[in-house]
Design goal:
Layout (H helix, E strand, L loop, with lengths): L1 H30 L5 H10 L8 E4 L2 E4 L4 H5 L5 H11 L7 E5 L2 E4 H4 L10 H14 L8 E3 L4 H8 L18 E7 L4 E7 L4 E5 L7 H19 L9 E4 L14 H12 L12 H14 L4
Parallel strand pairs: 5-6, 8-9
Antiparallel strand pairs: 1-2, 3-4, 6-7, 7-8
Helix pairs in contact: 4-10, 6-9
């Protein structure tokens, strides 16, 4: 009975959290109605249908992806891959290990957080961020370091001293991009430090602004430079930004925030436009499951 009760309580908690998230989303959507009619028309134009060539939002507004880029960014999931993915999502021993790499272990229970509208867990996001780091070793791509999903919470709540040893084998100042997954209780977001552009940018699939997170990360860079380089970090020319809801794709449910954070990271780590929509999420959930199983990105 106690096991049943605990499961029921957990399910009830998840439902309540989803309700709260949905209400927050609805509230933000209402606030956005202050946009002009023209803005709303532009937004409609920016949402590609799944089978169309994606439209990417660039600094000068909507920008057509080049011919052929649609196939490149959305490789087909073959029948054989579909079978593999279905077998991952089927019931079975929840503790069965399905993938191991980067000193991380992915079980069936973990992989099933990618199924349907489940919320992604830390293990899935950390594994995926490591896949992005692996790919960034390609000389044609920006060098990337991704922090663990627990990093920002630890930094914010316990300060620099609590995380300074996390980079003892990494020189964060030698890369182009730092990816920082941020967990806000029941919501995943992403912060990106770009050393080339001197920017710290916050990406939230529910349109949230988080200047505090950007400030915390800038302070972290200053402390890390003093600790590891024994020199002051020059903040001159650095900009702290939060992407507005009309600038990046937004989730239309209470379940896909983790997926959006991962997809932002994937596009940014290739220096490519962010060109997906909510409609693409079922495709990307399957694709991520396959990529994690095979320990390689498509």
């Amino acid at each position: 009975t106690s096991v049943y009760d605990s499961r029921a309580r957990e399910r009830w908690r998840q439902i309540e959290e989803q309700k709260a998230l949905a209400l927050q989303l609805q509230s933000q959507r209402l606030q956005e109605r202050e946009c002009s009619v023209q803005d709303l028309v532009d937004l409609h134009l920016r949402v590609p249908l799944e089978k169309e060539i994606p439209v990417a939002v660039g600094p000068q507004g909507p920008e057509r992806a080049r011919p052929g880029q649609a196939d490149e960014d959305f490789p087909e999931i073959t029948e054989e891959m579909e079978k593999e993915i279905k077998s991952l999502f089927r019931g079975g021993n929840q503790d069965e290990v399905l993938s191991e790499a980067f000193r991380l272990t992915i079980t069936r229970k973990d992989i099933q957080t990618l199924n349907n509208l489940n919320w992604l867990n830390d293990e899935i996001i950390n594994f995926y961020m490591n896949l992005l780091m692996e790919r960034s070793k390609d000389k044609d791509l920006p060098a990337v370091h991704a922090f663990n999903t627990f990093f920002f919470t630890k930094l914010k709540t316990a300060g620099y001293q609590a995380v300074k040893r996390w980079t003892k084998k990494v020189d964060i100042f030698s890369v182009d991009l730092l990816l920082v997954p941020i967990h806000l209780g029941v919501h995943w977001c992403l912060a990106v430090v770009d050393f080339r552009k001197k920017t710290i940018t916050y990406y939230d699939s529910m349109g949230g602004i988080n200047s505090e997170a950007c400030r915390i990360l800038l302070q972290y860079l200053k402390q890390e430079s003093l600790d590891k380089k024994r020199k002051e970090f020059d903040t001159n020319g650095w900009a702290l930004l939060s992407k507005k809801s009309q600038e990046i794709p937004q989730q239309m449910n209470g379940s896909d925030c983790g997926m959006f954070a991962c997809r932002y990271a994937e596009c940014i780590s290739k220096d490519k436009p962010i060109n997906f929509t909510q409609q693409h999420m079922p495709y990307f959930r399957k694709r991520m499951a396959w990529e994690i199983l095979h320990r390689k990105l498509l």
